[in-house]
Design a protein that fits this description.
There is one protein chain. The relative contact order is 0.19. The chain has helices at 43-50, 73-78, 96-107, 113-123, 125-129, 140-154, 170-185, 197-203, 221-225, 228-235, and strands at 5-14, 17-27, 32-36, 58-63, 66-67, 81-84, 158-162, 190-194, 206-211, 214-220. It contains ten helices and ten strands. By secondary structure, the protein is α/β, with parallel strands linked by helices. It has a six-stranded mixed sheet, sandwiched between helices. It has a four-stranded antiparallel sheet with strand order 2-1-4-5, with helices on one face. Helix 3 (96-107) packs parallel to helix 6 (140-154).
């Protein structure tokens, strides 16, 4: 079975600054890849390049075997590539219910909206309680629940998550990663960018360690997580 995501020798620059330097990685169907590293390593740039939110300088990205260079970001979303960015991407002035409606329509979920919303509220009862509340007034944890609800509703073919634990309490981090574990059990391929290396690698099948725009280590996530020298020297753990 072909890989769901293939990145080969990817270079991305911001003017004279080389943000990605020959990055290559692969995500197999049903597998979770963790991309970890310190601030400024290029992790968010990588995610934005995969979603075609940034132009690439050279290299190639293939989603489900097909090059993405000429595909607009909204078309990639329609094809099943769902990107939840750092900051969660919720529409702050709209209510919880309105955010869900927009996400369902934009990402092309199958089936009926009412059934999809019922599934979301069953998983996150607090969102049901706050259905009419503006997203901008929710706590950080509740906004992350709302962001993850897009994946519950739309069942993406590939889920890109950028720093899902950012700004969350330890309890909410645990809850967010429990949801990601459910997605993994359901066979949704995930690319997870995280500074919380232990949590990310504990969930993932394969790990990639980034530093200064390059992949410096890759391998089975469990082995990387068990290597104290790698965690200490390259991830600041």
């Amino acid at each position: 079975m072909p890989a769901i995501l293939e990145i080969e020798r990817l270079h991305v620059s911001y003017g004279p600054i080389r943000a990605l330097r020959g990055v290559s990685l692969t995500v197999e169907p049903g597998r979770t890849a963790a991309v970890v590293g310190a601030n400024g390593a290029g992790k968010t740039t990588l995610m934005r390049a995969v979603s075609n939110l940034l132009p690439i300088e050279s290299g190639e990205i293939r989603f489900d075997g097909k090059p993405t260079a000429a595909v607009k970001p909204h078309r990639l979303a329609r094809q099943g590539l769902l990107h939840i960015p750092e900051g969660r991407g919720t529409l702050q002035r709209l209510s919880v219910a309105e955010n869900l409606r927009v996400a369902f329509d934009r990402d092309g979920g199958g089936g009926g909206f009412a059934a999809a919303v019922e599934t979301v509220y069953a998983r996150f009862p607090r969102l049901g309680e706050r259905a009419r509340q503006a997203a901008g007034t929710l706590s950080g944890g509740e906004q992350q629940m709302l962001a993850l609800s897009r994946a519950i509703m739309c069942r993406p073919r590939l889920l890109l998550l950028d720093e899902p634990s950012l700004g969350l309490s330890p309890r909410m981090v645990k809850e967010a990663f429990a949801v990601l574990a459910d997605f993994k059990r359901e066979g949704i391929p995930i690319v997870l960018v995280e500074q919380n290396a232990r949590a990310a690698l504990s969930l993932a099948d394969i790990g990639y360690v980034m530093r200064q725009g390059e992949i410096i280590f890759s391998g089975p996530a469990a082995e990387l997580c068990a290597d104290p020298a790698m965690l200490r020297h390259y991830l600041g753990d």
